[in-house]
Structure formats: structure tokens, C-alpha cells
Amino acid sequence: MFYAHSPLIRSACLVVTAALGVVVAGGSLAQIRDGGPTSAAVGQADRQPVLNPRHPERYVVQRGDTLWDIAAMFLRDPWYWPEIWQINPQVENPHLIYPGDILSLTYVDGRPVLQVERGASGDVERLSPRVRSEPLEEAIPTIPFESIRAFLSRPAVLDPDQLETLPYVLAHEDGMIGSAGRDVYVRGTDAAVGEVYNVVHAGDELVDPDDGTLIGYEGIYVGQGQLRRAGDPATLRLTQTTREAIVGDYLLEEEGIVPIDFVPRAPEQDVDGRIIAVLDGLDLIGQYQIIVINRGAQHGLEPGHVLRIFRPGDTVRDTVGGGGAFGEKVRLPDESAGIMMTFRTFDRISYALVMEATKEIRVLDPVRNP
User: Fold this and answer.
1) What does DSSP assign to residue 351?
2) Residue 305 has what DSSP assignment?
3) What's the whole-number mean pLDDT along residues 319-346?
4) DSSP letter at 145?
5) Does residue 286 surpass a pLDDT of 80?
6) Claim to verify: residue 287 and residue 236 sit in the same structural domain
7) Of 88, 149, 233, 344, whose CB is crowded by the most CB atoms within 10 A?
8) 110 and 202 both lie in a single domain
9) Does residue 22 sit in the same domain as residue 100?
């Protein structure tokens, strides 16, 4: 796949990953009607997508649009987007939507599908494919890019076993603070002069509340440095910092860019987890905040998977019931509190962005299939 790299295209392209034709969830495309879900829905595979009652028949893609916004425009539940998306066979590149392109809701054999027609060539700057090393953020992501920028290529989770072998900051030169332009001494690396490292601080423990297992540590990005003298200890020149580098911080090699060309969709299997951390140490969680959940790749989660967040029901005492029910403790049902989308997954945890927040959201709130 080629990505465009000009300012116009950077603010113009909308990345869409969809195969040619209709992507069918669960092996069949459910019939879609305006209104509420049918009573025949049994389990995730049988739930039917519902069109947004205020959906347009045609929409011209605008600069700054995201796939989530467009999906929500046509669907009550944006994660059903793959079930109505159909690429026009004449479109040269099915992965990109440009400003000026026209999305049309049509019906094929009685079922609605969404097709794309290329807009006027004057509305879009077209670029020929070329070799150029630039990060994937040059393309507009499915979700607001600015909210996840720092988590696409920087360390996010530190494995407990990994800490035993990682290079680390031993001392500062002349007792100076560890800021950009300063040197620090490091141990544990045999890399050559010129090697670039991310400097990371091991933050809070990430513990699975289900079994108390230590999953890892939050990797707090400190900055970058370049080796200017090899040896043991070696000398690392801090080239960029967002916070002070301290003794004990770890060195990691630059990670590859995390793909951002995903589409919102529900997981294919049942997922039942909990929020275990919120970035920036906040108590209350709102829209476009980043959370960590105790479910990851081993549980079938992938970037783009959407889960619903629930507020646990309170436990109350029955002060009315007769027949022996009076005084019983009753747990009220969990209530929907928001929607999250995973954008980076590890083995046992995932990072997600809160897309909607309708109630207070807190650490340890459950997350399940939407």
C-alpha cells in the first residue's frame, strides 16, 4: 500500500481497510433496516446493524473526516461498517478515500450497501508512488490521530522479564539533570557509536485484576538518545526529552510504526475484561482518553476492535419485597457507559481510545462485546 505524503493529502486521505466487495461478519450479511434491532438477535453473530435514522443518502467526504465519524453518520453502531461497505470495482485504490469522493447509500437485492465514487480530479492532489521513508501518521487514521500519536511508535508496555536484560541509565555526567543536550552513562549495551535508543521510565505496575498476575509495567516515554561513546559504561547523548531522565531508566531500540489502517468492527469472539489503567493517572475517564485493558492478542483482540464499557451495578438492599425477600442484597445490572476502540494490542493487554462516554468511567470497569 502507498501512502500520500503532501500536506494536502495528509489532511485529505481517509484510510480504509476493506477487501473488494462486501466484508461479511459471521459468514452472512444481516439485513439492515431503519429502526431498532430485531428480536431475533441471539449473541454477537446474530445482532443486526441498524442504519442511523438521520443518515444521508449521499455524502461528500470532507478534509479532516475520520472513518469513525463517517461510519457513525450512516450507522447507529459504527463498528458494523464492514457489513455495509462495498468498493466500487472501478476505483483504482480501494484503501483510500479522498475529500470530494461521494459515498452513496444504495440497495442491492433489497439490502443497503455503501459505495464510493471518485470526486472530481481537481479536488484532490494525486501523487505517483515513490519510495520515501515517512511514518504512517501521514495518512489520516480511523480515529483522531493526535490522541494516539505518542503510542504508535514509542514503548508502551515493559515486560517484567525484559527489565532484567535491558540497558539502563547508570549515572549523569557531573551530576547534571538528564535533559536534552546532556550526557548520561549507561550499562548493558554493546551497540556501536551512533545507535539511537528510546529512554523509558518503568511506571506503574499493570496487574490483571482477575488473577492478580503482574502483566508488566507502563512504559513512560522519557526521550531519545544517541551513543557517542561505546564501552561499559557507554555514553549516551540525550537528543530529545519530554521529562528528566533519571538513574534506572531503561533503553529500548526504536519500535516499528504501529499500523493505523484498521476499520472499526466488533470482535469475532466473546471478550470480557476490565480497564486496568488510564493514561495520565486520572480518576475519571472521558472521550478520547487512552485506557489499558487486561485483554490482548491472546484473547483475539486486534487494532480496530470495538468494546462496550459498563458501569458495574450497585448492590442495594430490598426494603420492599415480601415472602422472605425483604432485606435481601440485590446487585443491579451493569449499565452501558461508553464505547472504546483498541488501537494497539500486546499479548495480554491492549491500549484503547474511548470513543464515547455517556456515564462516568473508572478503572476496573468491565468491557465486553458491543
Assistant:
1) E
2) B
3) 90
4) H
5) yes
6) no
7) 344
8) no
9) yes
